[in-house]
Write a structure and sequence with these properties.
The chain is an alpha/beta fold. The protein has one domain: 3-Layer(bba) Sandwich (D-tyrosyl-trna(Tyr) Deacylase, Chain: A), CATH 3.50.80.10. It contains three helices and eight strands, in the order E-E-E-H-E-E-H-E-H-E-E. Helix 1 packs parallel to helix 3.
């Protein structure tokens, strides 16, 4: 699994030009799932995200987690995170998991992260056309790949 984590002051997502969801200060997480990913990857990634200390403390030092600041979280599935651009100019998405593999892992991530943070997670809609608008603060953007744990 790959996750792009952005620290935001606010974000909103529009799904299929109709449904709009918003969050305030917190994290926007784009997650890409590949065929080899498992529940072990979900658990490891959720733990890493929930403990990630990327919010400022009183001294302006990035020392607090999203849970510690009471921040909100938005998770959006994004298969393009597994794009291969080695050959030619058209990306290949062959490493991205098919929906029958990806959807259960995406759903499990939403549930597990919600449980760890003790809050409802705002989500996109798997496979839908979405527009995301956000204000990245810092800017702080972190890339985590469960295949590179060590």
């Amino acid at each position: 699994m790959r996750a792009v984590i952005q620290r935001v002051s606010q974000a909103d997502i529009t799904i299929n030009d109709s449904t709009r969801k918003t969050i305030g200060e917190g994290l926007v997480i784009l997650v890409g799932i590949e065929e080899e990913d498992s529940m072990e990857d979900v658990g490891w990634l959720c733990g890493k995200i929930s403990r990630l200390r990327i919010f400022n403390d009183r001294n302006g030092v990035m020392n607090l987690s999203v849970k510690e600041i009471g921040g909100e979280v938005m998770i959006v599935s994004q298969f393009t995170l597994h794009a291969s651009t080695r050959k030619g100019n058209r990306p290949s998405y062959i490493r991205a998991a098919p929906s029958e593999t990806a959807i259960p892992l995406y759903d499990a991530m939403i549930i597990q992260l919600g449980n760890e943070l003790e809050q409802e997670i705002v989500t996109g809609e798997f496979g839908a056309y979405m527009e995301i608008s956000l204000t990245n603060t810092g800017p702080v953007t972190i890339l985590i790949d469960t295949k590179k744990k060590e």
